[in-house]
Amino acid sequence: MRIILFGPPGAGKGTQAVKLAERLKVPHISTGDILRRNVAKRTKLGQLAQKYMAAGKLVPDDVVIEMTAKRLKEPDAKQGFILDGFPRDLQQAKALDKLTEIDLVINLFLDPEDLVKRSTGRRVCPNCDAVYHFLTNPPKKRDICDNCGSALIQREDDKEDVVRTRIATYDEITAPLVAHYKGKGILRDVYASGHIVEVQHRILEVLPK
Fold first, then answer.
1. Hey, which end of the chain has fewer CB within 10 Å, N or C?
2. Residue 122 annotated as catalytic
3. 93-113: per-residue pLDDT in tens?
4. Which whole number is the average pLDDT over 148-176?
5. Residue 137 to residue 152: CA distance in whole angstroms
6. What are the residue ranges spanned by the domains of the chain?
7. Catalytic pick from 19, 122, 123, 202?
8. Active-site residue 44, yes or no?
9. CATH architecture assigned to 2-119+157-205
10. Whether residue 2 lies in the annotated active site
């Protein structure tokens, strides 16, 4: 089964993509992973992408599309895949239409205020990388890591003003994609609030029987 998974920052898209891929026994294909792999292997595309990344610029669509096209042709993706982070815009979606047929697009959604709470409540340990959340997984002692006793920090991209900007940007970019796949009749909206298992169950319910 060939599936695209959409979801705003904080909706748990990455977690659900991994779990769905494991259940369906297909690869979880992330644009970020593809980029990092190409850069690490110093492929021609990776070296080209690195120039943009080093300059703090977005990697151009044609480079991302070519990398993704090569990944989708690898043997493990023949029986299907879960695409995470691609397509990011309408140009990429139309390019993907030419590469392969997509069976289902799952659009995770949450109330914006829930997204803000999810992200702004997160704290991380700068020493051992443990992740906490004041609502769902608080440390035993406020602002102190259970594992190593270090003071927890809030990442810059978890601060409220940054989170709200990211959500607004995501909505603006994703709206044309949602319309594109709704027009094809293959988009399903899935409410992403609740425990991981609850959201996973909702996702499974929208899969073709």
1. C
2. yes
3. 999 999 999 999 999 999 888
4. 90
5. 13
6. 2-119+157-205
7. 122
8. no
9. 3-Layer(aba) Sandwich (3.40)
10. no
